[in-house]
Amino acid sequence: MSKVYKNYINGKWQVSNSEETFENINPSNTKQVIGRFQKSNQIDINKAVAAAKNAQIKWRNTPAPKRGEMLFRAGELLLKNKDSLARDMTMEMGKVFKETGGDVQEGIDMAYYAAGEGRRLMGETVPSEMTNKFCMSVRMPVGIVAAITPWNFPMAIPTWKLFPALIAGNTVVLKPASDTPLSAVNLVKILEKAGFPAGVINLVTGTGEETGRPLIDHPNVNLVSFTGSTNTGSFVAEHCAKGMKKFSLEMGGKNAVVVMDDADLNSAVEGVLWGAFGTTGQRCTACSRVIVHEKVIKKFNDLLVAKASGLRVGDGLNGKIEMGPLINESQRQKVKKYVDIGIHEGAKLLTGGDYCHGKSFQNGFFFQPTVFGDVSPKMRIAQEEIFGPVLSVIPCNSLEQAVSIVNDSKFGLSSAIYTQDVNRAFKAIETLDTGITYINSSTIGAEIQLPFGGTKGTGNGHREAGSVGIDVFTEWKSVYVDYSGKLQKAQID
Asked: pTM, whole model, 2 decimals?
């Protein structure tokens, strides 16, 4: 019998009002049930939000440096338990152990970074247009934050949301993806041990319909911070708009690497491989398109296919494995559907294109690293987010054409260019319509001290991480202090 994990509400681990659970399955070995988790419903959501509301005033009145000390302790505990947290994550979502270690490391980095913000939380002071008058702005907490997080970064992304929200004085209800609830439970246990008071952090597990929707719609939730699919993000936006509540969306991408004719091709191939097949292509920043100058495209393709076809696929806990499984069977079928679409559209399948076959793959959701050549920019495989290990190679004849192809997308998250020409590099920085641009690196690898997010359909303009990552979790208050001893009328006197 697999272990049963509980919700965390008002400082106590408790079963759902539904008295029902769901299984968490290892995508590398579907015969392994990692645990059973609570199928939460409206009553559980009401209890969690009520706990957050009751704790909010006391928490916002806790000095921010003290809140930061708790976050620093959380970072120390994450560091101490990094390997065990990474192992659990690999078992529940599949990416290789080195990558899940990096996922936990992002949480550690964010804990330390947010802890430092407890001694800043900066506003600004500005001069007044009148004498004997002082002007400043300060940050105020939003209130109760609903954090709805995806399965591909089940430790990093929750910390990107929770830690800035907490340091700003908000209380939180976390609803993790139903494919990866164990990592969320592990994170909340760390925060509990770090000393966060009852009600400040609450965890409810369950489906989007039964758990996520009532959380989004709850009238006492002040902000919904969501990372996930564009379709679900649109639902979040619509419902939050109806309730006149704040929302932050981080959604899809169709990210591209540009490889110019002067690029170091070996380096470019390594970067493209990492971007396309790291996390089995299941990143919002994954390299899904590579736009290669026609002068070097044949040599590039030869190098790329040789490397991609040789990637070792399997259980991510095996140290020799380079790419793990897809998250579930539904996602694997979606990837196969897009491969069939690409072939039907006339793209040339250069390698991969099918499920992995063989005894070692029969119980997991494994898919071959796949590369298409002869792809035109308007093909569906070049326009739609696949979220799997499928890469489209598109030819170009100039930097200007490459930029045009990159920008011809409804998304605008991440881009990259390989070139030895500093002029081309800066022109790419200026003209690529994405929130992130890398020079001579892949489309993945964001660091938490810079803003993360994108343009167009990738989100609604907010950014996570960096010094601006706290913005969505605070309200600005402008303060005027008049010590003149008389009424002064701005813009009149």
From this structure: 0.97
